[in-house]
Design a protein that fits this description.
InterPro entries: P-loop_NTPase
Distance between the termini: 43 Å
Number of domains: 2
Helix content: 40-55%
Number of helices: 8
Shape: globular
Largest sheet: 2 strands, parallel
Order of helices and strands: EEHHEEHHEHHEHH
Strand content: 5-15%
Strand order of the largest sheet: 1-3
Structural class: mainly alpha
Protein name: MFHA1 protein
Length: 218
């Protein structure tokens, strides 16, 4: 809701736990809740803005007013919900095809046809090689400066600078090839070259019915 021109694809899982006739009912219910949530957000923002504009000394609240107006201008596109059975490979492929279809839609993503500089592809290919090398630790974590030094060993990347690498890492983070939490102080110097490791860790920590599973242990 805070990112300009966001596109959201709702995905309903655990279809296998529902009766066939319930799926469409739940789909309509979820869609209605999303519409209501967006309407409430719009109403709340308008209310907060009116309060600031109607205050006795509005000049003291200019920063808050500007932030609220910026949030109010953020459009949010909600695509049709996709219901999937995560235990069915065909459903996973259907979800994958749906995502790719939307991503290639230039109306939703105008920058999809933007041509990247060759160095982006070169760094991407080099990072894939590093991540798949035998010397890479299983957790796939690497210090940002050390990664830069490794990349500079490639002849065509010898002049790669830290600032350009950071720009490329932002792009690779957006497409999911790496994970780089530059906004988190304690993690800004760490690059996760193997995001699947993080997924595995999260699955161990955040689990469905975790409380019930723990309570069942004597």
């Amino acid at each position: 809701m805070r990112v300009p021109n966001s596109v959201v694809l709702p995905v309903g899982t655990h279809v296998d736990c529902c009766q066939k006739e319930d799926v469409e009912v739940k789909r309509r219910d979820i869609t209605a809740k999303i519409v209501a949530m967006l309407a409430e957000r719009k109403s709340n923002l308008a209310h907060f803005i009116d309060n600031l504009e109607g205050s006795e000394e509005p000049e003291f609240y200019v920063d808050q007013w500007e932030r609220l107006k910026e949030m109010e201008s953020c459009t949010l596109t909600i695509l049709n919900l996709v219901a999937v059975n995560c235990t069915d490979y065909c459903d996973i492929k259907k979800l994958e095809a749906t995502i790719l279809e939307h991503v290639k839609n230039e109306e939703l993503f105008p920058e999809v046809t933007r041509v990247l500089p060759p160095v982006y592809r070169q760094v991407e290919a080099a990072i894939v090689d590093i991540a798949q090398s035998e010397e890479m630790a299983g957790h796939g974590m690497m210090d940002l400066q050390y990664l830069l030094s490794k990349l500079c060993q490639w002849k065509h990347l010898a002049n790669l600078g830290r600032e350009l690498l950071q720009d490329i890492l932002r792009y690779l983070h957006r497409i999911g090839l790496v994970v780089w939490y530059e906004e988190i102080k304690h993690l800004e110097s760490t690059v996760f070259l193997q995001p699947t490791f993080l997924i595995t860790m999260f699955k161990l920590l955040v689990r469905y019915r975790l409380v019930q599973q723990l309570e069942s242990i004597s």
